[in-house]
Amino acid sequence: MDAALQNATSNDNPDAPVFFNNRGVIVTGAKFILPGNQTYAMDGITTVWMHKDIPSQIGPILCILGGIITGAFSSAFIWIAVAPILVGIFWLALLKPRFSVVLNSTFGETEALEGRDGRWIQDIVWALDKAIADRGG
To answer: Going by C-beta distance under 8 Å and a sequence separation of 6 or more, which residues neighbour residue 131?
Structure first.
């Protein structure tokens, strides 16, 4: 058994069920443990949700439009128009949303964890919801 998992289940409540254990993130009935030894007590968490932050696409779109406008007025130097269009398309392809686990407690709202893998973050939120429901919260 993983040492962090043993600590998560042996402290406070040795019978706490484990709802999630993946990539250093552990959710038990008693604790929410993150990589770097950041720990939240489950009894302090009232609600949890996933936030999705979509990056702005204005920069890449302006780059593409600049290339199109340049191409419309300068047929002699086509590469001057194609280069910004290709850069804009590549830039758009690199933009990925960021997802985060947001915890609400009596002390306020905390963004506990973020990442680009929406499925992983959703699985963590599900496990936290299950842990809250199991304790009767």
So the answer is: 17, 19, 27, 28, 29, 32, 42
Taking only the tens of pLDDT, the chain with its 137 residues reads: 333 333 444 445 667 799 999 999 999 999 999 998 899 999 999 999 999 999 999 999 999 999 999 888 876 678 788 999 999 999 999 999 999 999 999 889 999 999 999 999 999 999 999 999 987 65
Rounded distance, CA 2 to CA 24, Å? 10
Let me know whether 88 and 101 are in one domain.
Answer: no
Q: What letter does residue 76 receive in the DSSP assignment?
A: S
- What is the domain count for the chain? 2
Residue 121 and residue 49: Cα distance in Å, rounded? 10
Residue with tokens 């963590």: 124
Q: Are residues 50 and 107 in the same domain?
A: yes
Q: Phi then psi for 112, rounded to 5 degrees?
A: -85, -35
* Cβ count within 10 A of residue 3: 7
